[in-house]
Structures are given as structure tokens and as C-alpha cells.
Design goal:
Blueprint: E1 5-12, E2 16-18, H1 28-38, E3 42-46, H2 47-53, E4 61-65, E5 77-79, H3 82-96, E6 101-103, H4 107-113, E7 119-125, E8 133-134, E9 143-151, E10 161-168
Parallel strand pairs: 1-6, 1-7, 3-4, 3-6, 4-5
Antiparallel strand pairs: 2-8, 7-10, 9-10
This protein binds NADP nicotinamide-adenine-dinucleotide phosphate (NAP).
NADP nicotinamide-adenine-dinucleotide phosphate (NAP) binds next to strand 1, strand 2, helix 2 and helix 4.
């Protein structure tokens, strides 16, 4: 049995997801949702995103994709190709009893993952900042919107935002 891949991303109105290897906003409610969606699961991320976070996140297993054969970091798994990352993710999910492997960015990794993911958990952030990393518009001929919840700006969240869930069409 293949374990499904889920993709978790926060995207501005203009498609921006990051700049200078940093996030573009402070949204505590979205961080909490990210934690809930990824907890107990293996996560696949690019080397740049890993370095931006700087450490493995607790309660999850981190698989870092890099082409650099010399890359080393403690407490994470390393993969040198997409297929290797997915194979490691499936193996770890089995060991952890997880029902999915989460793809958590950045832009390069999302592009590679999109043809393979079953579900997209997208946070649309109501702002349009200057970015240097982007997520493409979701292809609604391939993905169906299955849930949408809007949240206002608040002391915890510096912009209004909407959680939109997409499921691959069969
Ligand atoms: N808003 C969000 O939800 C969100 C989530 C995550 C990240 N981000 C943002 O996204 C930005 C980073 O995205 P990015 O596209 O610059 O970098 P990235 O996707 O995090 O990492 C890119 C790196 O992944 C490795 N890689 C890519 N394809 C590979 C392949 N086929 N095989 C092996 N390794 C491969 C390469 O590492 P090497 O160079 O080491 O070979 C490449 O430089 C940051 O601004 C970050 O804050 C935003």
C-alpha cells in the first residue's frame, strides 16, 4: 500500500511564499495548523527550507532533499532525489504509524511534489508582499476544493487568511 502525500503551504495573493529564505508573515493560527497537520508524520523539505528553520521540528521526522553529497545535519534524514525522499517517507510513516507523508516546501520541492500529492492544505494569506519564492495557482481541473475556512486579522495573525483544502480529482 502506498502512503498518500499531503502538501502544506501558505501562499500570498500574488503567489509569494518566501523571500531571502524567510517566511513573509507572522500568523500564529497558521503555525498551529501546520503543527497539527504535520505532527507524528514524516516531512519532506528542501535543503534551503531546512536551513531556514534551522533544526528538526519535534514530534516529526524530517527528510531533507539536497543534491550535495556532503550535506550533513543531525537529527534529520537526507535524500538525494525525489524518489529517495518518498521511499524514506513511506518507510518512516510505517515505523511511526503515520497515515501520510507531508511535503512542506519550499518552492522547488512543491513544484516536484505537485504531480504526486493527494491533498493540498493551502493557507491563502490576504497580502501581496514582494517575494522570491512562489507557489503556482492550484490547477482546479486536477484538484477539487473540499473545505474553506476564513479567519480575520487578529493580534495573533497579522493578516486575514483562509484555509483551503484541495483533494486530487479521481
Ligand atoms: N509559505 C510557506 O508555506 C513556505 C514553506 C516552506 C518554505 N517556504 C519558503 O520557500 C523558500 C525556499 O524555497 P526554495 O525553492 O528556495 O528552496 P527549497 O525548495 O526549500 O530547497 C531547494 C533545495 O532543495 C534541493 N533540491 C531541489 N530539487 C532536488 C532534487 N531533485 N534532488 C535533490 N535535491 C533537490 C536543492 O538543495 P542543494 O542546493 O543543497 O542541492 C535545492 O537547492 C524560503 O523563502 C522559505 O521561507 C515557504
Amino acid at each position: 500500500m502506498t502512503i498518500p502525500l499531503i502538501l502544506v503551504v501558505a501562499v500570498a495573493k500574488n503567489g509569494a511564499i518566501g523571500r531571502d529564505n524567510q517566511l513573509l508573515w507572522r500568523l500564529r493560527t497558521d503555525l498551529k495548523r501546520f503543527r497539527e497537520l504535520t505532527m507524528g508524520k514524516p516531512m519532506i523539505m528542501g535543503r534551503k527550507t531546512y536551513q531556514s528553520i534551522g533544526k528538526p521540528l519535534p514530534g516529526r521526522e524530517t527528510i531533507v532533499l539536497t543534491r550535495d553529497g556532503g550535506f550533513a545535519a543531525s537529527g534529520v534524514h537526507i535524500a538525494h532525489s525525489w524518489d529517495e525522499a518518498v521511499a524514506k517517507g513511506e518507510g518512516l510513516a510505517g515505523e511511526m504509524g503515520a497515515d501520510a507523508v507531508a511535503v512542506v516546501g519550499g518552492a522547488e520541492i512543491y513544484r516536484m511534489a505537485l504531480p504526486h500529492v493527494e491533498t493540498i492544505y493551502l493557507t491563502e494569506v490576504a497580502t501581496a508582499p514582494e517575494g522570491d519564492a512562489f507557489f503556482p495557482p492550484v490547477d482546479r481541473t486536477r484538484f477539487r476544493e473540499v473545505a474553506r475556512i476564513s479567519h480575520p486579522k487578529s493580534p495573533d495573525d497579522e493578516h486575514p487568511f483562509t484555509f483551503i483544502d484541495f483533494q486530487r480529482r479521481r
